[in-house]
Amino acid sequence: MAKGIQEREFQNLMIQWSLPMGWGYMAGRSLSRETTQTVVTSQLRDAIIRLNPEVIDKFDVDAVVEEITATINAVDGGLVRANEQVVKLLRGQKEFRAADGVWHALKVIGFERPSSNTLVVSDEVTITVPGKTSRRFDLVYWVNGLPLVVVEVKSPTSKSSWADAARDINDVYATEYPWFFTSNVFSVASDGLKLRFGAAGAPLNKWQPFRSTDDAEDLSGQADVKRSVELLLNPATILDMLASFALFDTSGGGADVKYLPRYPQMEAAHLIHERVLEGGTKGLVWHHQGSGKTLLMVFAASLLLADTRTESPTVILLSDRTQLVRQTSGVYTSAMGDAYFHQPATSRELRSLLADDTRGVISTTVHKFKNAGKDLSIRDNVIVLVDEAHRTQSSKSQSLAGQMRAALPKAKFFGMTGTPIKSLATDTFALFGEETDPNRVMHRYSVTRSLRDEATVPVMLDPHPISFEMNDKALQAEFDQFADDFDLDDPDREALSRKFGRLTSVFANRERIDTVCQHIVDHYLAGAYRNGLKAQVVTYNRELAVAYTDKINELLAGYEASQVLAEVGKHERITAEVNISVSESKDEEPEMKPYFLSETDEEEQKRRFLTPDHSLCFLVVTAKLMTGFDAPNEGVLYLDKPLKAHNLFQTITRPNRTWVSPTGFVKTDGVVVD
């Protein structure tokens, strides 16, 4: 779109693009509604009669319309909760009492055929109530008289953008007239050059583009916006999102949240669903790290469980780490509830669930399949969705993954990963990829697409070599004394020296620890801290994680750091905490036992780290929280550990999540200091 085009001209373009998709146009002023009304009741009434021919004669249709309208206009408990209740109604999950006293679920929308609905797009739609400033929506997409999509547009000038349009929806329209958004599937903001969609009230970094992975990555400007309109505002897409992809977390554990899918999540979830229905047995989903694979698994599970053609399946959400199981389980239960959901605490409990033909969702680790035996379940509608599929997955029969496959011989396996591996030891492509898929990948969402979509932010490498003097003679003397104490022979001395001696001593050198930690604190206070971002430190081993934490806290308590904190004015003191794997076993090293964290302790620690204003600003780790920990407010990762291959890639993408601070700071990149 050429610069200078007026908002009204762009509205007209959007209408023109919408008409071939089945939308009918009606000017906002011509709708058969009062400006105080949310619903076009005549269209809603006609749809209820048309969609429920078998039972509608038993109802007072006007009373049904009145009840639906009252539900839509109720916003008690906040917009997200009200939206959740109305979405259930729109999905046909609400029952109404007929004249004979019998309760029936009534269809309000026809999901099977979009053309069975009354589809109307209107411009300049006014809403008002006495005592309030009237507002006018640029475009509204109505389905059976219900406002499912609201669009706000801006001219592409230097002073306005899609973000300004989104703020108008969040801060003005949805705030002043929340009842107009209780039936909202999503809202759209565009400046003619970019288009984003999101849940009304959602932070701007949760507003996403809607594209197709089949299209060229370099599509931009008006062509990109037009294609987005054709994809996103197609009636089939809106109804699909309403039926299967609008999920809610109103469990009370924090702020109410509405989840909407990114387009690659939607595409991949459908491909998994379709492949299962077609009788396929596997598929590899390769999505860039940080682009939402956990939520993709939840969307896919939702589709599979809701479809009667899958004949009450068992969907296993599989991880290789307990913390990832907790994360996946939390996302699933918050969005879908805990009915038919199982998280076995032991291997025995897992075996019992499978042997007893349990249906629904099982969230577990691959380790619980150890010694599971063969043929625990021989059903072919067991679907295993494997997170981080490049890890602990092997075709070897004695491996954990091999034992799992022996226990579930007819199951279907779908792998999700950001770093597939092809090596002599592991081949993610062969294990999960179907030969008929291009390059054995069922669905691909690349780094470049993720960055272009602003689903993730770029990560900048900031190398900071640390130099210091080391007394090799003293080091050798210490090593010789150690070897003598343990009576090591020459081959053992040589092997130990070659593998561990110098490297461990380098990292554990007291002077180096002091220098590195001073550098970390100086770098953090000079940059990331001032923008409200937090930091993660990756160390060589557990002992060094503890040592770094102690030193960082010592420096943060010093006068120099206190001067910076006083200048910024957010905290009197900030702290670092360690998060390492510590066993409760009697064999655990005594000096490590004080750092044991229970599941509750760890979740509380992560909650404090994720809270923008909390004083916990550093998490110091060596292996834990390097994958599966979604911390959007992490702005910098200090890497002081040798890593390679997929471990390196996964670690350095920790800071790549998008984030907007409570003060409005927009995170534009993450930093890895190596």
Summarize the structure.
With 674 residues, the chain is of the alpha/beta class.
Structural class: alpha/beta
Average pLDDT level: 88
Strand content: 15-25%
Specify the overall morphology: globular
- Radius of gyration, in angstroms, nearest whole number: 28 Å
The total count of helices amounts to 21
Q: Strands of the largest sheet, in order across it? A: 13-14-12-15-16-11-17
**Biggest sheet layout:** 7 strands, parallel
Distance between the termini: 43 Å
Q: Please give the number of β-strands.
A: 23
Helix content: 25-40%
What are the segments in which pLDDT stays under 50 over at least 5 consecutive residues? none
Subunit structure: The type I restriction/modification system is composed of three polypeptides R, M and S.
EC number: 3.1.21.3
Pfam family, one: HSDR_N
GO molecular function, one term: type I site-specific deoxyribonuclease activity
Give an overview of the whole structure:
This protein has 674 residues and is α/β, with parallel strands linked by helices. The mean pLDDT is 88. Strands 13-14-12-15-16-11-17 form a seven-stranded parallel sheet. It has 21 helices and 23 strands.
Which helices and strands appear, and what pairs or packs with what?
Elements: H1 7-18, E1 24-25, H2 41-51, H3 61-73, H4 79-90, E2 95-97, E3 103-105, E4 119-127, E5 135-143, E6 146-153, H5 162-176, E7 186-190, E8 195-198, H6 221-232, H7 235-245, E9 247-249, E10 257-259, H8 263-277, E11 282-287, H9 293-306, E12 314-319, H10 322-336, E13 341-342, H11 347-355, E14 360-365, E15 382-386, H12 400-407, E16 412-417, H13 428-432, E17 443-445, H14 447-452, E18 459-462, H15 472-485, H16 490-508, H17 510-526, E19 534-538, H18 542-556, H19 559-568, E20 575-578, H20 599-610, E21 616-621, E22 634-639, H21 645-652, E23 670-673
Parallel strand pairs: 1-4, 6-7, 11-16, 11-17, 12-14, 12-15, 13-14, 15-16, 18-23, 19-21, 19-22, 20-21, 22-23
Antiparallel strand pairs: 2-3, 4-5, 5-6, 7-8, 9-10
Helix pairs in contact: 2-3, 8-9, 9-10, 17-18
